[in-house]
Every structure is written in structure tokens, then in C-alpha cells.
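Title: Prediction job returns without error message
Component: structure pipeline
Severity: low
Priority: P3
Assignee: unassigned

Description:
Job completed but the reporter wants confirmation the result is attached to the right record. Sequence as submitted:
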Amino acid sequence: MPLRLARAEAADIPQLVDLYFNTFKSPIVLRVKPNVPPVREWYKKSLENDIEKPYTRLYKVVEGQAESAQVSDEIIAFAKWSSPHTEPQSGKPAQWPEDGDVALFKEAVGKATEKKKNIMGEKEHWYLGVLATLPKHQRRGAGSLLMTEFCKEVDEAGQWSYVEASPHGRPTYQRFGFETRDTFSVMIDAEPYTDCCMVREPQINSQEKQ
């Protein structure tokens, strides 16, 4: 069946939670966000908060024609990204999934935040936070549909974009123009786990070049 890209809705969030935990099985995700009810509820609330933000986009990929699609249709992939914005200072401490490894989560987020600040500086940029496709539906083009939409929005704005990629995900982002600028690592069971800090520069389309 053909694949269809659409904006995700609040009613989709339970499916997005399932998809996330059925897709991401890296050592760091299993440690900081184990697939247990309290962590799933934490992630559900996080998505509910994100979908209300005007600068955050949540897109989904489903099978079937547009006229026949229903909220109950299986979502096989989704992505979350945000446009440039200034995050308001709430004064509240960050909420972490306490059933996971909070210390490791804080360490990874701290290193990722520092690297992004060093790489991007004051440049306004889009941030790609999640790109997930159910394992049984990978290599069907769902991720490419999501990345094409992301790049379209970024290029229309003429701005930079940034993503932290696992070694497994890095080739996908490279195909869409991202370049690795740095890496950061955390230790998990005495083994280093490394993410790539990737940047996509503003693209100039052929019409603008003329």
C-alpha cells in the first residue's frame, strides 16, 4: 500500500509512544528510557506538551489513501522537529524519567547541549529531535518522506538545521545533506556510546541561483 505523510494529532500520541519504544533499542535509550509504564507515561506527557507548542512539528507516516485514512490506522513512522525559537525560562527543574538512569540522562543531555552550543553558537537553526520507523517497515521510504518534509520546511526558511545521530542513523541524515561536525560519548557498562553532532547548512535552490 502507498505511504501517506500527515501532521500528527493529539489522538495519535498513544501510537507514537508505542512506536518510539518499539523502535529505539540502543544501549543509551534502554538505560535512560526503559520500556516500563512510568517512563511511557513520562514520554506521553512530553509529546502532549510538544504538540501544543507553535514551533514544534509532529509528522506521521501511515499506509493508505488520504480519503480513507483514520486516526486508528497504523502509524509506521513519525518525526518531531522544531523551528528556531527562544525557550521561556520556567524556573522549574527538568523532569526526568525517574525509572531510568537519571544520572546518565543528565550527563548525555548536558554533553549534547554543550556540543550544540559550541557548534551552532548564535545561529538560528531547526532541531530534529526524533525520526523513528518501526523496524518491520524500514527501507520502505517512510523515513525519506519525513526527511523530505523536514528539509522542505528548513529550505523555505533558508536556515540551518541540527541533529544528534546514532551511528545507525547517521547515513540517513548524510543523504539529506547533514555533515558530522563533532561527537560526544557516554560510558555504558564500561563501553563508550557515541552520538554524532550533525549540521545541515542553508540550501540555495536553483531558482534563487539564477
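Comment from assignee: result matches the submitted record. The longest helix spans residues 102-120.
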